[in-house]
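Researcher: I've been going back and forth with a colleague about how Hemimethylated DNA-binding domain-containing protein might be arranged in three dimensions. Neither of us has a model we trust, so I'd like an independent prediction. The organism is Aptenodytes forsteri, in case that matters for your notes. Sequence below.
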Amino acid sequence: MPHINAAAALQICVLLSALPAQYFISQWYGTDSAQRIQITERLIIASWSSFTKSCLSRDAWADRLKLWLSKTRQGERSKTERGKVVNTIKEEGENWYYGEKKTKIGNSEAETHSYFAESTHVRSPKPEYIHFSVGQVIGHKRFGYSGVIVGWDVKAKAPEEWLQHKYPPAKQGLKDTPHYRILINKANGYGKSTAYVPEEEITIIMGVEV
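Model: Here is an independent structure prediction for Hemimethylated DNA-binding domain-containing protein. You can compare it with whatever you and your colleague have in mind.
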């Protein structure tokens, strides 16, 4: 049921009170009672017509209903947009944790980061202490999955929050060792599509295709 605001209520009251007022005013016009009756009838008909158009017309109520629905939808859209912002913040944190390259805000892509072995700069020749190369098939020593190296960093390059979560005080030294971005083999059923791991946790697998 559409809400009747104060302005609409005031309009209805004015229309209802206009009829008796017009009747008393009409008593001062006309030369005889017949003319006063005719004037009163015309005023009654005009008042009733105005009242029906404003309050009893389907079109008038349809317009009020459309206005009410429009305001309701605007409120729902505002809530949806606020929810998207919250979800975007959560997704951004998850993407950082799992090593994703880009974060998204709404429908537009945010600035591209060079975190997680996805630098846009050409690094050639490769330093000698980077033992593995892009394209090599590896196996994870602890988790057992296989995958392909798709990028590397001379040391861990990630947001500070991710590094703190990944490396507690006892493993701080691993942050300064070479890190590799791994595209994980789906056949392992590991649950993640990529990983960002230090060199000591992986080993090269020969004669295996992923």
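Researcher: What would you highlight for our discussion?
Model: I'd start with this: The chain has a mean pLDDT of 75. After that, consider the following. The first strand starts at residue 104 and ends at 105.
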